């Protein structure tokens, strides 16, 4: 677990990475140990924190290269892609590492005789593996900050920026800067790219939640069973970053083309700009509407689009406040057509058990009938989560 106190570096902190003398202190008896005591001839030995370039003696370009290599790889389905699955050129392209930076780093390791890291291939394969040891790296990162604040370097600002990013990445999702994720689904040819701003001002709609990912796969699987004989009106409520709605729409276009459908992505006013960005980035803006729909005040949306009812409503993770169950049911009741279907996916958070019970009761009282129910499991930025899916229709007399 990350502890903010790990960021504190005492004034007499010592750089324990291998310096020009390549001297280490044994934590057992303070005996001086030299690199000649290590068997560096075995190139297959795993590397560790002590193999990182000395903050005091390594070229600035080598320090920057290492920081970029420790940058997380692109996220796919809430998991960082594995560096070993990428070629050296693919990894460098993804992390923004130039040939010049990489060559300077190789030269540094060759100069000090580290045979485990003396080629570009070894460096690109082994250095990223250290990114999983976040707490161990924090001391190294703070030494870099302390050192580069005091010296002049052509890449000083970039080093400070990158090391600050690496520290924030070890503080959890809420500390991360803007980021992009990629989502891959069965039966969908294209990946979906999602842009997420920093989670500031408690705007939870700027983050992609696990329920949207689980629901997306279900929605994709339903599209081939739809008979496209009429124009379908589809509404995503509380779209957030738009993953679930875009998954359905992309599968629809892939299966039937971009005709016979009217797709609406909606959320609160402050969420809509980022939602529009994601819809545009995935090539869906010309065939859809992205606009504000305030569940408590839906009249302006109704007046603007004159849409009476929707054939499909998509909702994921809509409950994180005591007043949400009534708002959710009210807006579903208002917009769902007589023969329409609502797809609802919610996480089973212990904290909101009362709100869920109220939601079930209000659905029933408003003539909304659950015709299908499935328990799901998935992951989010904070680990494994249990989910519940419900397919909802208007109760027929």
UniProtKB/TrEMBL annotation:
GO terms for molecular function: S-adenosylmethionine-dependent methyltransferase activity. Pfam families: Methyltransf_16. InterPro entries: Methyltransf_16, SAM-dependent_MTases_sf. GO terms for cellular component: cytosol. It comes from Zygosaccharomyces mellis. Signal peptide: none annotated. This is S-adenosylmethionine-dependent methyltransferase. Keywords: Transferase.
């Amino acid at each position: 677990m990350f502890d903010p106190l790990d960021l504190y570096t005492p004034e007499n902190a010592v750089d324990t990475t291998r310096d020009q003398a390549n001297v280490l202190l044994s934590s057992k008896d303070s005996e001086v140990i030299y690199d000649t005591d290590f068997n560096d001839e075995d190139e297959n030995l795993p590397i560790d924190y002590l193999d990182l370039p000395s903050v005091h003696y390594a070229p600035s370009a080598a320090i920057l290269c290492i920081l970029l290599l420790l940058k997380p790889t692109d996220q796919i389905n809430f998991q960082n892609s594995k560096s070993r699955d990428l070629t050296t050129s693919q990894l460098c392209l993804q992390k923004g590492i130039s040939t010049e930076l990489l060559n300077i780093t190789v030269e540094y390791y060759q100069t000090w005789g580290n045979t485990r890291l003396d080629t570009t291939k070894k460096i690109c394969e082994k250095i990223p593996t250290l990114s999983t040891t976040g707490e161990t790296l924090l001391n190294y990162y703070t030494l870099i900050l302390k050192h580069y604040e005091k010296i002049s370097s052509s890449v000083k600002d970039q080093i400070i920026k990158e090391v600050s990013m690496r520290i924030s990445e070890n503080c959890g999702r809420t500390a991360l800067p803007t980021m992009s994720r990629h989502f891959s689904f069965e039966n969908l040819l294209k990946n979906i790219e999602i842009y997420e701003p920093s989670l500031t001002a408690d705007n939870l709609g700027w983050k992609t939640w696990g329920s949207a990912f689980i629901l997306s796969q279900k929605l994709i699987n339903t599209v081939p069973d739809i008979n496209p004989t009429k124009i379908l009106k589809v509404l995503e409520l509380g779209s957030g970053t738009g993953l679930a709605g875009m998954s359905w729409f992309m599968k629809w276009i892939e299966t039937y083309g971009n005709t016979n459908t009217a797709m609406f992505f909606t959320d609160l006013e402050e969420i809509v700009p980022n939602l529009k960005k994601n819809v545009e980035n995935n090539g869906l803006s010309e065939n859809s509407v992205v606009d504000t729909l305030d569940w408590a005040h839906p009249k302006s949306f109704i007046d603007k689009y004159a849409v009476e009812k929707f054939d499909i409503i998509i909702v994921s993770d809509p409950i994180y406040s005591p007043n949400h169950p009534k708002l959710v049911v009210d807006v579903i009741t208002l917009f769902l057509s007589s023969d329409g279907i609502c797809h609802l996916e919610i996480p089973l958070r212990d904290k909101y058990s009362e709100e869920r019970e109220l939601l079930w009761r209000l659905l029933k009282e408003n003539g909304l009938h659950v015709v299908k129910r499935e328990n799901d499991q998935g992951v989010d930025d904070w680990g494994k989560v249990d989910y519940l899916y419900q397919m909802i229709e208007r109760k027929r007399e």
